[in-house]
Amino acid sequence: MKNGQYFPIAACAGCSHSDAADYDKRWLIVDESGRLVTQKDFPQLIEIVPSLSYGYLAIKAPGMLRMDIPLDVIEDDDSVRRVALVGTHKVDVVDEGDLAAAWLANYLKAPCRLMKVHPDADAVDWTAL
User: Fold this and answer.
1) What CA–CA distance (Å, rounded) separates 16 from 32?
2) Which is nearest to 10 in space by CA: 34, 29, 33, 23?
3) Confidence class of residue 1 from pLDDT cuts 50, 70 and 90?
4) What are phi and psi for residue 125, nearest 5 degrees?
């Protein structure tokens, strides 16, 4: 949390929704190699604005239609589990799918994927941000 803001998607804009604390840095964006991307890589990440609404993480950005991602899905499908790199640390994550990846690739003009930190994952060291 920073200045009353929570950051559901690491390295993107914050939101002050009362429920956002439960979802602070629950998602991250990775490049093709599975590495966390930051505003150093893509300064326009700050323009990706998340909000929480009716059980969904809603994501908006200039020139893009809103995308909704379910907040609480049981991650029991091992086919979507991946490992992401946050700095030098490996993090157990769940891939949010091709639609989210296409949305990000369209906005960032580079192949990227939206990942959710697996609920059973160890605590993430976010110092890479």
Assistant:
1) 31
2) 29
3) low
4) -90, 105
Distance CA(50)–CA(68), nearest Å, equals 10
CA–CA distance, 73 with 31 (Å, rounded to integer)? 23
Rounded Cα–Cα distance for residues 49 and 57 (Å): 10
Q: What six digits make up the tokens of 64?
A: 């893009």
- Its domain, for residue 34, covers 20-128
Q: What is the pLDDT of residues 5-45, one digit of tens each?
A: 999 999 999 998 878 899 999 999 999 999 999 999 999 99
Secondary structure element (H or E) that encloses residue 92, with its range: strand 89-95
> How many domains does the structure of the chain reveal?
1
Q: 86 and 52 in contact (C-beta within 8 Å)? A: no
Is residue 6 domain-resident? no
Retrieve residue 42's tokens.
């893509």
Instruction: Establish if 11 belongs to a structural domain.
Output: no
In a domain, 39, yes or no: yes
